[in-house]
Amino acid sequence: MSYLVLARKWRPQTFGDLIGQEHVCRTLQNAIESGRVAHAFLFTGARGVGKTSAARILAKALQCEKGPAPEPCNECPACLEITAGNSVDVFEIDGASNTGVEDIRELRENIKYLPSRCRFKIFIIDEVHMLSTSAFNALLKTLEEPPPHVKFIFATTEPHKVPITILSRCQRFDFKRIPLPRIAQLLRTIVNEEKVTVSDASLTAIARKGDGSMRDSLSTLDQVLAFCGDAVADDEVVALLGVVDRRMLLEASRAVFARDCQASLDIVARVDSFGYNMRSFCQELIDHFRNLIIVKVSVNPAELLDLAEGELEDVRAQAVTATLDQLQRCQSILLKAETEMALSGFTRFILEMALLKMCTLVPVVPVDEIIGRLKSLENDLGKSVPAPASRAPVSPPKAPLVARAVEASAATVPSGKPSSSEPAQEGWSGFVAFVNREKKSLGAILEHGRPLQFTAHEVEIGFPAGSFHLTCMQDADSLAAVTELAARYFKAKPAVRLSPLAGENRGLPPTVQEKKSLEAAERQQKLEEDARKHPLVTAAVEIFDAKIGEIIAIEQDPDAKEETD
Prior knowledge:
alpha/beta; single chain; 5-stranded parallel β-sheet; Zinc Finger, Delta Prime, domain 3
């Protein structure tokens, strides 16, 4: 006796046997009971979900000698003939093979005649979308007003290819993908009847391979039984089907959550050694992290996930170890990696880098928590820091009675020295500032000179030999201008001399520029010390786990007015 494949052996024979399509079965049964059976039906849905089986069951229910009945008896000659596929009044036509207008014209000629033995002539046209436009047009009039003894049942996987004129003349039923647990449950019933030992994990892998199609799942089970015999091992199923072992997905996510980079790389190496496609494994990881996210946020994730009960429990247990933000960031990395794999030949390297990046993700503090902590810190500082007192006007410093010369020499300033009410009474720096106000270009040059002698009788200024500044000052006009300004500054007539300097400047008085640089460095150091010790800065570093990169002084608006008492 020839072997009958499982998909044919276990084909549904009643509406009760048709799993996953209860909405279709109930509607058809109610229509039969109430006598409201349409003349044309369109069954749509993915492959292997029961469209053709439902068409045969409907045909049997309408032709049954005990009916029309909500369920066929499967015992009368009409039911048995339809089951065997040799009924003279039920015609199964392959739309992919009979696409021409001549085939439809032949069908129209056949429609005219009454059924031979049954109540109706029933035409089941599978893959009806394959008919040509001319064939559809030839069918229109007959489909709209068929004889009372004719019923049409169309089945298609691509309803969008069926003309709207055909769709509008049919009652449409959309068949759903069969949930994975329902497929696995039926597979368990079948293997028990067939007396085959298979684990639930292997049945789940077979059901997942079917991708919502019962026929594909049964065909896969046939293949597994042919390879493994009556005792099916899990490793054999994984190797035969070329599917990713779910345990590897759990191990990969566990390594990511544990920040174990070495374990992540080892998993990629195992995937490569098993011969799995890297991009397919990445897609499986994307689906796995989607499961983790849904379990994390959904009250009833079983309705949204295509997982068996045992797999769902594993996902639940692992989802507890990660935050929602971490899962979403990992998912984004995987989606980007999968896109890059499609355009690159370095798929293993891309997957390795994606997993390493997931392992080294820095935890992110939620924005709401950061804002709350900053507000709390601000309130605490407001309570502990007193309000600043009003600033009193500052009197200008009194001029010293004795003007100190530079380190090289010092002399007593004569009584003709300017009064304290005049600006810039600070030795050499004061004189340079005075020149800057009077003649800025000349003051800029003097900022680079060293005051070797600076008294009311003698002003000796040193510049590096051969320097640009020395050359400028040796100009007769420049020297005359400095002499005149020195006389005005001291209210005396000091002799002004220029001295070229060679070699090191150690022991010589500093220039104004050097003093400015030194003061700026000291101010920056003081600023950095104060900034690093500031409570807000230390709190921000702690909250964000940050490091201080650069400290920049905020320049105050010179036009801003300070409030005074």
